[in-house]
Structures are given as structure tokens and as C-alpha cells.
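Request: Not sure, any thoughts?
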Amino acid sequence: MLDTYEISLLEAIYTADRIPLWIYGSELNLTNYFFAKTADNINKTLQEYMSTVIRKAPYLDFDLLYYNNELYYIFSFDHKKERCFCLGGPMLLTGIYPPTAVKSLSFSCKLNMKELENLVDLLPIISFTHFSSYLRITMLILKREALSLDEISNFKITSLHDSLKRSFIFELFENREDGRVHTSYSQELTVLNYIKEGDLKRLESTYRSLPQIKYGKMSDNPIRQLFYGCIANTTLVTRYAIEGGLEEEVAFTLSDVYIQKMEKCKTLYELHLLNEKMAVDFTEHVAKAKEGKHPAYLEPINKCIEMIYKNLHQRITLNMLAIEVHLTPKYLSHLFHKETGQTLTEFIEAKRIEEAKNLLIYSQYSYSKISTYLCFNSHSYFISVFKKRVGITPKEYRIKYTMPTWRVT
């Protein structure tokens, strides 16, 4: 339906921003769409879902639609004397989608887990500035006019939940602007686990492939802002290095040395380089510490423990581990208890609580998000297990141990 020039422009915009775009005719029939080429089932399912979204939208002339952590927009435009509609989305407001959370996405019901994960990887995580700019450009191409940034930012968003209640979410958008966009937990966890494993090769590969680390907003001064972030990062790296086998005194001394060097940096470039050098240095120290350490357990148990550490954010079962180490589940369960003094369930639970303690101290993630990411059955169960093992609730632990200087307000 669109002319060649419009299609070329929208294709170029999609390539740059990866925000899916769907064009419908007056009868709400899909005429054009801009989305990555993927498996037929994913494309078909998403097309069908977007047709449902546009039919549920109460305001077709212009509306912003919200469902949990997803955002969509819709507006009408005239094309060759026909009233047409542009629907943008899905767009994501967060990058944290562990397996247990992917199923909460509104379009998940007809896709299996692998298809969902592939689809989520294709969808953009947006800030308010990104969203508003993209919407205005699309409106200018198709309508020849666009709302102002103020009109977009003050617009009340329609919820796609069954209740169709009105909802405000631009506070979340605003928190993602001007340095307040945090590096996703999945990225942080990837880097920290490589440090704990002493895996220098994969750490350096990750640094090359992932975007630059972002620390939120702790100061209006860019250098001081990054300095605070580097301190927090160094502290967290130190803790993971100790858990990876580095002696505490060595780790704390190395930490002090790097923080002192960071304090003397005069440019953002120097700080970024030193921050990465610090992580590499710790990883090398952990690797050397592991080389000189004799395994405490039998090889199958060591392999199980390694798998548990790497998959704390995923569902782990006895059968899965038994397959990996080529033992029967019953014998692995017996051997694991004999070697470690704990049942497999107790061991996994303990390691997840350790990870939760790290997140409570060194991140600003909500209690429910930490609970979900670490695969606890429910938020209340997470609180119960945490209190049983630590003696206080997650909230009390965060208040007691978080350093006020590093908290983002």
C-alpha cells in the first residue's frame, strides 16, 4: 500500500532502531510490516498478535499502549484517500528476561521457550528519548505532521490489561535518560561470572561484544559519576573474585590499588580503560589461584557445582545434572550429599541466596526482580528462604549492608 519512497524510509529506520512497525488498511488488514526475517512461526504468531492489539486498542487516531514491560503506539494517517493505521511495537522497557519471566510477555502464549528467547533478542529496549524521536519521525513520514515531545511525554497511556485502566509509566522512561539507563543485570552477571571463573578469554570477548557499561546517575559531573560507578564495580568484582578462590587479602589490596588509581584519572577515557584493566587483572589473579588449587570433590561433583554457578538464573534439576555427568539421578544425589554434606536442593538454594545477597548490596534491582531472576517459585518464598538462611529479610539485609554513598537516588 505504501509507496516505494515511504517503504525505503521505514526500512532504513527499522534497520537503525529495530522497532517493529505494522501498517493496516481501513479494514484493519495488514498491508506492510517492518520486522526482522525470522522463523516462519515467530513472524506469523507476532503478526496475528499485533492484529489482536490493534483491534483491542480503544483509540485508533492516536494512543500509547502498555502491558507490563512492553510498549506500543498507534496512530491513523490518510493515504490515497483511505484511512490507514500505523502500529509500532513491541518495545521493551527492560532487558531482564530470564526464562521464568519470558512467559509473562503478552505475546508468549503461542511460542515455545526457544522461539520466545529468539524474539526477545530481536526487540529493542528503549528510552523515552529514543521512543519519542522514533514516534515523531514515523508520524512525519506518514502523516506529514507530528506531536511535540511535551505532548508525547504528557500523554496518558492505555493499559493492554483486561481492565484497560489508564497508567502512567513515563517516570520509568525518564529514569533511563541522561545516564540513568543502567547496564542490564544479564550483562553484569555475564562479566562477573567470567571473573569468578578466571575465564580471561571469554571476559575479553564479552567486553568487545557488549555495549559500554552504564552506571545510572550518581552525580551531575560526568567524571565523578563514572568514578562512583567504577568504585562500585571494583567492589563487586572484588567480592566475585574472592568467591572464585582469590585470597581475601590479595583481593582487597588489589581493590585499594585500583580505586586509588581511579581517583587520579582526569578523563572519562582514562577511567573506562582502567575499569576494564581492573576486571582483567582480577580475572588473571583468579585464574592463577585456581591453577594452584587441588579439587576438593570428585570430578562429577565439581562439574555439577560449576554448572550450578553458571546457571543460577535458570531452572536446575537433578535429572539435568545427572545427564551432564553421566550418572543416574539416584547415585548423583547420594554422591553429592556424601561429598558436600548437603543435598543438591540445599546447595543450589544456598548459592542463590549468596547471589541474592550480592544483588541486594550492589544493585538497585527490586526484591521481586531478584526473586524472579534467581528462579524462586514466588516472591514470598524468596523472603522466607532468605530469612531462614540469613536471619533477616532481604529488605533488612539491603538496609543494613548497602553503602549509602553508592545508592542511586
About this structure: The first strand starts at residue 21 and ends at 24. The chain is about 55% helix and 10% strand. Residues 4-174 form one domain.
